[in-house]
Design a protein that fits this description.
19-stranded parallel sheet; seven-stranded mixed sheet; binds uridine-diphosphate-N-acetylglucosamine; binds calcium ion; peptidoglycan synthesis; magnesium; repeat; EC 2.7.7.23
Length: 483
């Protein structure tokens, strides 16, 4: 149920220079979704009446992602006044004037902060009737963070930014995580009073704390239980760390749901993937996007599936597949490359060193070895010979190959599309099929074989081949020259 007295502000206007990226920082993905999507999902779980995202750098790209993942979020543009205080001030101004509930402030670059932690923070804030409640963290190395300054009684008196801190303050190990709950009324009243006279020339949100203290309003700081939850992503190393943590949680979730994951450290599963019970994942497997895997499947090792559908009991080894459908009890790989539009029917097979694209291969049909099958339809129970190529491209246009059911094609065939092979037809080894093959026919296109007897003895005298040939004929003279 929506909490009419709660708003969430997501800060995402910062430049993110340390990412050294042309992509906005909050759009870098972890577990298949941009960081900001994770934060928006968490915000949504708090069931606030309003979600706002403050943008400035690459505002068009960031706001497009915001709308994609939270279409009811309010996008607030920050002006040229820098600082978290200004960002929140503008966001609060964008709330209805009569909103006087609580405001959760989080950063778009802290993807693993969860709704349970934030929900508890809101409850503590409300139970204490505080004006501000800061989620803090106690760190061994507090470098760079704002420090939580407390008086002798332990009450929070200020947050001092690292760059503005003296030695006494720098020695404090309790830091501001950058997530808070504020009374909206406190922000409305105090943010306009905050200036930019500090080491960074920015309007600090954290200055609200000292002002509240001056007016004797209660401020609390609550240390987070697990520091990694509040870790921000400022560079690619931190991006990888948080991605690995999230992946470990996702893998564990699947394990607890009955999926065997042999090597969690090398198994990467996007948040959006679903996997059925008793499915087994072997090392170096990446399951991405909208991939769904039914029960009893065996995936990997060394397999990447992006936006794929895998049926019950299917086996997919050493395979790279995108937008492919692999139906129940089919087998794929090793070393298969399934491109978009591949659909393999139940019990079918795409074997070693086979590439497919836009290919519907019917139930129990097989493409077992060394083939390229593109823009093709194969019926049921057919077998495509080793080394078959569908020549689907005439240099200008793509054409379709249609193979019926219960067809047996020879090894090393080329199907020059457009071409149709009827039900129950056969083709000989090495055939180049340029014309349609009627149902039940045997198609052959290779010229009849001619053997030129004695050709080697005559034309390659003295060679090892000639000697072997002569020996096979039982002849004595191995060297017709007599030398
Ligand atoms: C901020 C806190 C600091 C805390 C740290 C935790 C302030 C003044 N300091 O510092 O006490 O320990 O976070 O990581 O708040 N942002 C905007 N608009 C701006 C500036 C920043 O939206 O004008 C956003 C950023 O995109 C980011 C968040 O606010 O998501 C924090 O900004 P950042 O510059 O990283 O703050 P810090 O200096 O790290
Ligand atoms: Ca930061």
């Amino acid at each position: 149920m929506t909490d009419p007295r709660l708003a969430v502000i997501v800060l995402a206007a910062g430049e993110g220079t340390r990412m050294r990226s042309k992509r906005a920082k909050v759009l870098h993905p972890i577990a298949g979704l941009p960081m900001i999507a994770h934060v928006l999902t968490t915000a949504r779980h708090l069931e606030p009446a309003y979600v706002e995202v403050v943008v400035r750098h690459q505002r068009d790209e960031v706001s497009a992602a915001v709308i994609e993942f939270a279409d009811d979020a309010i996008v607030v543009d920050q002006d040229e006044v820098p600082g978290t205080g200004r960002a929140v001030e503008l966001a609060v101004q964008a709330l209805p004037a009569d909103f006087d509930g609580d405001v959760v402030v989080v950063s778009g670059d802290v993807p693993l902060l969860d709704a349970v932690t934030l929900g508890a923070l809101v409850e503590q804030h409300r139970a204490a009737a505080a004006s501000a409640t800061v989620l803090s963290a106690v760190l061994d190395d507090a470098t760079g963070y704002g420090r939580i300054v407390r008086d002798a009684s332990g009450a929070v008196t200020a947050i001092v930014e690292h760059k503005d801190a003296d030695e006494t303050v720098l020695a404090i190990t309790e830091v501001n995580s950058g997530s808070y709950v504020f009374a909206a009324s406190a922000l409305r009243e105090l943010l306009p009073r905050i200036g930019t006279a500090n080491a960074q020339g920015e309007k600090y949100l954290t200055d609200v704390v000292a002002l509240l203290r001056e007016s004797a309003a209660p401020v609390a700081a609550v240390p987070v239980a697990e520091n990694w939850r509040v870790a921000g992503v400022n560079d690619r190393a931190q991006l990888a760390e948080q991605a690995a943590r999230l992946n470990a949680m996702i893998v564990r979730g699947h394990q607890l749901n009955g999926v065997t994951v042999h090597d969690p450290a090398t198994t990467w599963i996007d948040l959006t993937v679903s996997i059925g019970e008793d499915t087994e994942l072997w090392p170096n497997t990446r399951l991405a996007g909208a991939t769904t895997i039914e029960r009893d499947a065996v995936i990997g090792p060394d397999t990447t599936l992006v936006d794929c559908e895998v049926g019950e009991g299917a086996i997919v080894k050493r395979t790279d597949a995108t937008l492919a459908v692999i139906r129940a009890y089919a087998t794929v790989g090793p070393f298969a490359y399934l491109r978009p539009g591949t659909e393999l029917g139940g019990g079918g097979k795409i074997g070693a060193f086979v590439e497919t694209k836009n290919a519907r291969i019917g139930r129990s049909s097989k493409v077992p070895h060394l083939s390229y099958i593109g823009d093709t339809e194969v019926g049921e129970g057919s077998n495509i010979g080793a080394g078959t190529i569908t020549a689907n491209y005439d240099g200008v246009n793509k054409h379709r190959t249609t193979v019926g059911s219960h067809v047996r094609t020879g090894s090393h065939n080329v199907f020059v599309a457009p071409v149709t092979i009827g039900d129950g037809a056969y083709s000989g080894a090495g055939a180049v099929i340029r014309k349609d093959v009627p149902a039940g026919a045997l198609a052959m296109s290779v010229a009849p074989q001619r053997n030129l007897d004695g050709w080697v003895l005559t034309n390659r005298p003295g060679s090892a081949a000639a000697e072997a040939a002569a020996a096979a004929e039982g002849g004595a003279g191995t060297d017709p020259s007599g030398a």
